[in-house]
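Ticket #4471: complex job returned nothing on first submit. Input attached below:
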Amino acid sequence: MGSRYLLRRVATACFTIVMIVVLNFVLFRAMPGSPERILLGRMPGVTAEVLAQTRARWGLDKPLFPDQFVAYLNSTAQGDLGFSYAARGRPVTEVLAQHLGPTLLLFGLGEILAIVLGLTLGSYSGWKRGSPVDYVGNAISLILYSMPYFLLGMALLLIFSTGAGWFPTFGMLTAGATYDNPLDVALDLGGHLALPLATVALGLIGQYAILMRSSVVETLSEDYVTTARAMGFRDDRVLRRHALPNAMLPTVTLVAINLGYVVAGAITVEVVFNWPGLGTLTVDALASRDYPVLQGVFLLLSVAVVFANLGADLLYGVLDPRVRT
Amino acid sequence: MTAPAVPADGGPGAVARPAGRKPSVLRQVLARPDGMAGFVILVVFTVLALVPTLLVGPLQTAVTATGPRLAPPSIGYPLGTDELGRSILNLTVHATRVSMVIGFLATIVTVLIGAVLGIMSGFVGGRFDAVTMRIADFFLVIPTFVLAIILTAIIRDVVGTGSTEILGIRLSLITIVIVIGITSWSSTARIIRSQTLSLKERAFVDRARVIGAGGGHIMRRHVLPNVTNLIVANAVLVFAGAILTETTLAFVGLGDPFQPSWGQILDAARQVGAPSLGAWWYFVPAGVCIVLVVFAFTLLGNALDAVLNPKLQARR
Amino acid sequence: MRLSLRAKVARPVAALLLTALVLLPSALPASAADPLILRVGTGQKLATLNPWHSITVADYEIFQLQYEMLVSFGQNLEPVAGFADKWESSSDKMTHTFHIREGMVWSDGEPATCEDARWTYQFVLDAVASETGYVGSGYLEPYLMNAGLKSVTCTDPQTLVVATEFPTTLLTQAYVPILPKHIWSKYTMEQIGNADAKGFFANEPPVVGSGPYTAVQWEPGQFIRFARNDKYWGKRGVPDEIIFQTFSDPVSMVPALKSGELDYVRGIGADQFDALKTEPNIKTVEGFSNGYTYLSFNTRGNQKGYQGSTSALADVKFRDALGYAIDHQKLVDAVFNGHAVPGTTHVPPYHVKWHVEPATPRTFDIAEANRRLDAAGYARNAAGNRVDKEGKEIVLRLTWPDSEAGHSTDAQFIQGWFKELGIGVDAFVTEEAKLSADLLGPEAGGPANWDMYMWGWTGDPDPMSLLSFFTTDNIKSGTNDAFFSNARYDELFKLQQRATDEVQRHAYIDEMQQIFYDAAAYSILYYDSELHAYRTDKFGGWTSQPPDSGTPLFGYGYPGYLALTNAALASPSPSAAPSAAAPSASAGAATPAPSGGGTGTPASGDSGMLILLAVVAVVAVVVVGLVLARRRSGSSQEEE
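Support reply: We reran it on our side without changes. The output follows.
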């Protein structure tokens, strides 16, 4: 692909990241309440002097611009995102890293599962256009799409975990467990992963199914397909060679756009299943007013989405020859 | 929320248009099964939202509640009671008003910002366009939910949280309206801008320019009427998204127990432990309402889109 | 024959699903050497292993297991041997001698002597003398400073001598863990106390302690795992390991308890508590809580520098009248389904020795409240609303922090009741940090911009802390948020602090409670109860502390843990292996599989089987359908 395209995309991404960093700073200074009050809040014996001292120690008594802002830029550039209030001194980067893995696992797998299943369902639906299966499939897709993720999660939890007792009710791994071999780890993880994964996948399937169906229908009505059919080519081969690639482009875009909304789902699904990822971290940080962590999550997720979009753009450039220049 | 792609053939509900005089948009929409279904559901909910007190009496509070604690549905309490003895039917119907009004207000804010910025961007072009679209892209990229959580705290500080009401909605929930507006306007703006760009090239705009009409005038009198269809179709989907966002924000605790919305009822149910207690009547009604309304809006939005913008289907 | 894309995808996916469904629920083989683990669930964060940063009950519980206090707490909260096995005080109660147990060692083998205790207490003294006046979160120093700690020395390796500024008996209740000097003295006070200092000492596992268990694994924010300390001097605990697990949503602890994934939970909701009463193998316990929830008034009203909305707030008669319009019992019933105690004085009934009932209690009587308001000069205007002495309609703002969302129910009630008095209530939640800032008065540099608000306090084994909040000095620090100031109260505080005769001290504390109650600066809404539940099929010997009004765990010290017995040994059937309830011969028997010796009891095997069969059937239908469809299309192609 053209280097101009590449350059432009990367430049846009960088600019966006800069804006995110600035917004991060502004946002968290605008939050009500001051950090030293939050931390030292209801401690007996803390006087106004102590509070003032703490403020000074954290550099909060300096003016916002340029002192605090520069300090913030400086430390962020060095990868120092501050310390978590709630975690009594662990660096925010450490807290984020600890929670990132589970979220990636859950949503990575969920997204993949949703794409695979959704595209399959969608193509079947599109092929059988107009049939009852199509209607039902479409309706189910739309209903799933209309449901907030956490409702789905709560329902699954109720039926399969509390009700049938198949799956554990919380967490990612059994706490404090020791494993004899990797298979045990995989099984324990699998058992805990099943329901949240199902929730995430079901929540995302709808869009991919509708997308694929649309692409299939469009492709099947093209002239060259009629020709191909007349010439004896099989439908499914035509599907594979034309509908699927056509659906790829919007799918890639959809995945990238989705990332922003998946985050909302992430937060609620993780809360329902006590899944120790970024979502649970966000809600806990919100509840304990752990601003450095919230700030860190915001930064991390925004940057991740920017990179994902950049990746999608570049992928798009590879897939779609029209976009090369 | 993103709009699902409209199927190229107009979806499973498409019917061939009869030859002759084109029926009104409404009739076209209602002629489609998805349009009709969506419309009917929404009418029902609108009625519930407009006159809740007429239907179930005033909103029950902890003091005025008379029912047993967390009781399953019975003759006296068709949808059971919550932990304060309030009738879930009463709560859910009143929550309809709250959720729908918040959704409505949020949609107005979102569409207003989005349409104005979109039209201006598309029409004026140049630096203004570049900057505005940069900002819009920015909002599309950042995780708006986390932003919404943070913004709610900040804006509540500014707006206040007393029990004063605007249009029957407490200030704490007005904050939610503002927050949704701030975080959702970008896709509307982008869509409107596209349409404006294509309109700009149309002959009647040139003609208007030639006779000396000013930019504002052209935007108002010529561009606006032609994007209205698009705005309406988009607004319907924005409404659905607003309800989902408000529900999720309430679920993580940003609702107002003094003015419960569906999401707030779900949050209250979760806090009492309703799912593990088997008190399904507490959260199922609100959950069903949410799904139904969003589903209805999505159907309606699809139908509207197919009817109003047949040309745009190919582009999707 | 080439498979269509659909079939190519569908088959492996279906196969995967089926395999997963069959494999996942299989019970893992249990080896005979599985450790006996006590799993405890809490809604509080397990944020720190460094005791100086302890704030929550969970934090305290964690250090109590690992570190002895100088004097520990017995089953009845009586002083029992801890780090010291004998102690005595001089006749003037200002010199106290503690005999440190002989032959004690830390979990790493180092001898535990007087020097460790001396170092720990000296650390407190140094912290108080430092620039900030406290270290870490500052919760531990007051236990010693309120006892008047002056100096501490070791006359020999087994003898600790403590001198206090005034006569005191409170040293035996000092809730301060004795730390190993050889570990902790390597760090500066800055490194121990400041979480953001370079080289901050987080005290990560393996922790060196002297208590019955020490931490061996820590997943911050998730769980802490303790293993038995074989060098502990006392009785050997039955659990081999203890795991504390945090839940961001406490509601989900109950299903985990029912399924056997947890053995003990603290802090569950009232309705879940009641529902558990009928569960087999689960026992619930309601303990008196050492704390209360209160409604506070801005007793300076709208005086200069304070932004209360009306001068009425400053009038004790006004506040007293309002107290007759609060039905404490109703709040308890509505919010906790009866699982709390209606509030009266500010020393909770938990303190059996010190709590007294008010001499002139305020009962719930709207008519009486109205009478008193009329008598106090707050008449109603034409619209029926009360006006204050300046003629302004009285509308009181009522708020609470968003971290205590449950108060909205209390607020609804208060709003309804005050309405009958003709007083409007504007109720809303406020973000916690903002509320903390708004509450402060001008002495602390704040706006005092509030009328009424709700929050809670928790106490210590000794009521000293709860009493201390309302001294005039504490207006500056913010704990005396109601701006209550009474010279006699301040005097009494000093008197009871130095009282060595319990009867005398009781008299002082009695009077303090009456003064505070009559001033109506607070209306103590209720004393929240501790709602815990535990399984009886794995561990037995659950003993509450105190036995009839407390809870087995999360008390003071660690007697509850050492009292536990192995329930399996009591019954003939072995229960060390995961209980094999409901597995049937058919494939896919559903048993949750917590590994490592946990027991899993599936809720209902039969319905589970049905659902499994249904799912399998659906998947099978889909797969078959896809395959058939492909076949049909394939054959239709061939026909053309």
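Chain B touches chain C through 30 residues (CB under 8 Å). Closing as resolved unless it happens again.
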